[in-house]
Specification:
The structure is a homodimer of 192-residue chains.
Chain A: H1 4-19, H2 26-33, H3 37-44, H4 47-67, H5 78-87, H6 94-109, H7 117-138, H8 144-166, H9 172-191
Helix pairs in contact in A: 1-2, 1-4, 1-6, 4-6, 4-7, 5-7, 5-9, 6-8, 7-8, 8-9
């Protein structure tokens, strides 16, 4: 069973994905999470604490669904592992739509709200390092700086494509094709 | 002198860049543009008309500052033309910060607001076609579908890098380096 604080963060991600960061009122969150506002303040202190913890929660959740593998399946090659980790962010499921919409919203609000910037930079860095690590297994002789640059580009491209998909400009199948070609191209460059 | 409707759209872009789409109230816009709310409704009908026209205005303005060239300078090569057009979106000036913050905000709101989607898709398409045209001058023998895919990736990457820069995750100089390497890599792939 999810703890009370997880239950609140799950509800916060749902509300942000549905109505945006500015649509998140503590009273509404309490109703959505089926808890009292006092319990929310007890766990997260204030609205800005809720937003920071929701960002961390969303980032951890994306880490889980992009690395989830069927335990009975053949082990993946490093190249397949990299591709899956990135392409699982472009799936038309409720979980991914909700998580990515909320992430895009939190990223967009950080343009106006300094309070989110540190947590956003931290979560982005963790993600970039994870992708750089996977790229390093695909191209073991590539220098660390080149792996980091490739990982920054692939993750920024994924954010860009994901926002186009969620905002109705791009079909998810097209986003996946474009992403997949970018992975090939970055891996080619790293090998040369 | 700017027309009254341009004056209103300039003010709307400023307000959205400062406080987000949800921070845009017609009364506040009237004060910022120094006009009456009646004049705003006369020109744009309703709040959703304001948002659609602001998106168009922002997109046209980006088209102007990314193609502005010194008339006395040497003409640019197709490769330089492409690079300038894209890198001029990553300049730490008030105009570009304001324009890109407002664009990111409108893109993020379109996740929740169907009303903006058509105009956003149109503006994105115009931009992708412009970049595909520039890529076609760099790589005249590349097939149209490959040019379109490269242009979609480069513009989506630019949106992703731009949001990271504006939300404080990435320095603008780093964003420019990553973008520049992506242009080289896409041009290389198109030539092979």
């Amino acid at each position: 069973m999810a703890s009370r604080s997880t239950q609140i963060l799950e509800a916060a991600a749902r509300v942000i994905a549905r109505r945006g960061v500015r649509g998140l009122r503590v009273e509404e969150l309490a109703a959505e999470a089926n808890v009292s506002t006092a319990l929310i303040y007890y766990h997260f202190e204030d609205r800005s604490g809720i937003l920071r913890h929701t960002l961390e929660f969303i980032s951890d959740r994306a880490g889980r669904y992009t690395t989830r593998r069927d335990p009975d399946a053949e082990p993946l090659s490093p190249r397949e592992e990299l591709e899956q980790t990135l392409l699982l962010e472009l799936q038309d499921t409720t979980e991914v739509r909700e998580n990515s919409s909320a992430w895009g919203e939190l990223r967009a609000s950080a343009v106006f709200d300094d309070n989110l910037r540190e947590e956003l930079a931290r979560a982005t860095l963790v993600w970039v390092q994870e992708v750089a690590g996977l790229l390093g297994r695909v191209c073991p002789t590539a220098p660390a700086a080149a792996l980091a640059a490739s990982a920054e580009r692939l993750t920024a491209l994924l954010e860009g494509l994901s926002m186009r998909w969620l905002s109705g400009t791009l079909r998810v199948s097209r986003a996946r094709t474009l992403m997949s070609e970018a992975i090939d191209s970055e891996a080619d460059q790293l090998r040369n």
